[in-house]
Design brief:
By secondary structure, the chain is α/β, with parallel strands linked by helices. Helices cover about 40% and strands about 20% of the residues. The protein is built from eleven helices and 14 strands. An eight-stranded mixed sheet has the order 5-8-2-1-11-13-14-12, sandwiched between helices. Helix 4 packs across helix 5 and helix 7 packs parallel to helix 9. The radius of gyration is 19 Å and the shape is globular. The chain starts with 11 loop residues before the first helix and ends with a helix. The N terminus is likely disordered.
């Protein structure tokens, strides 16, 4: 935020008008589950992080059942660097040996998870942090021997999350998994969020990232595609409009739709209060993925 920019002053009447316009959306999402996958620049930038926490607490206080699923790749990389260990990636996934798996567990389930819980509570929320290890919530197996302890999800038991929601908590979930031999796996946060959203029968999965959404032309930031369905996604893959790092993100969105999530949003986490814009206004932000555009209309 530019410190030289003065805050916009609005009257009490304007505040009331804003709240009135939000009423239909508050009614729409009341008592519904929304899963938010949190990562990217929105997690790195402290000012944006504060706003994301405010948005989540506000949604919770108006009756939305929010589940926060988080990653933490940059912090893992930074911690590995501090202990003199280089991060190696294959096909965009971090090669994870035993030592790296220990660091992933420490950073995700420890530092980041508890930091987010603390920030939510400071903002007036009621949050509780859990990891995929708790109650064997996320079970996994080795995805590819080349990657080491990078996990492919075999089962997700969402009952711990549902228990927390029932008691009024915001569950904050770190995406590490385990198997019956006690191995710990590094799980892709987008993939975990898709499984969790499907398991809790979420009204929406919102995946926060550091791009505007799906762009028709990657060099034109105004060419954002506001909504796609599964058929259109196939066409965009074939024409390579969806390419590079956007491929796994959209694949996870499609997985979530197949698992029963009604709508998935790829949201630009760099936009201040993007969560509130997406959930409580007509404007929206980012790209929405649905099963069928005609049914959505």
């Amino acid at each position: 935020m530019d410190n030289n920019v003065l805050p916009i002053k609005i009257t009490n009447a304007q505040r009331a008008e804003v709240l009135t316009q939000a009423l239909p959306y508050i009614q729409k999402y009341y008592n519904k589950i929304v899963v938010i996958k949190y990562g990217g620049n929105a997690m790195i930038n402290e000012h944006l992080k504060e706003q994301v926490m405010e948005d989540i607490v506000l949604l919770s206080l108006i009756g939305v059942k929010v589940v926060l699923v988080h990653g933490g790749g940059p912090e893992i990389t930074d911690t590995l660097k501090r202990i003199g260990k280089e991060s190696v990636f294959v096909d965009g996934l971090r090669v994870t040996d035993k030592e790296t798996a220990d660091v992933v567990q420490m950073v995700l389930a420890g530092k980041i998870n508890k930091s987010l819980v603390n920030k939510l509570q400071i903002k007036g929320g009621k949050a509780l942090g859990i990891s995929g290890l708790d109650g064997h919530m996320i079970e996994a197996e080795m995805k590819d021997e080349r990657l080491g302890y990078v996990g492919k999800i075999t089962n997700v038991d969402v009952s711990p999350i549902m228990d927390l929601l029932e008691k009024g908590y915001i569950p904050v979930v770190s995406t590490i998994g385990c198997d019956n031999e006690g191995n710990v796996y590094n799980i892709n946060a987008d993939t975990a969020a898709a499984y969790i959203a499907g398991g809790v029968k979420a009204e929406r999965l919102i995946t926060m990232t550091d791009i505007e959404g799906i762009l028709r032309d990657k060099n034109d930031h105004s060419s954002i595609i506001p909504c796609i369905d599964l058929k259109m996604a196939e066409e965009l893959f074939a024409s390579e409009v969806i390419s590079g790092g956007m491929i796994p993100k959209v694949e996870c969105c499609i997985d979530a739709i197949h698992k029963g999530v009604k709508k998935v949003i790829i949201l630009d986490g760099r936009v201040p209060h993007a969560l509130l814009i997406e959930t409580l206004t007509d404007e929206g932000a980012g790209t929405m993925v649905v099963a069928d555009m005609k049914e959505n209309e």
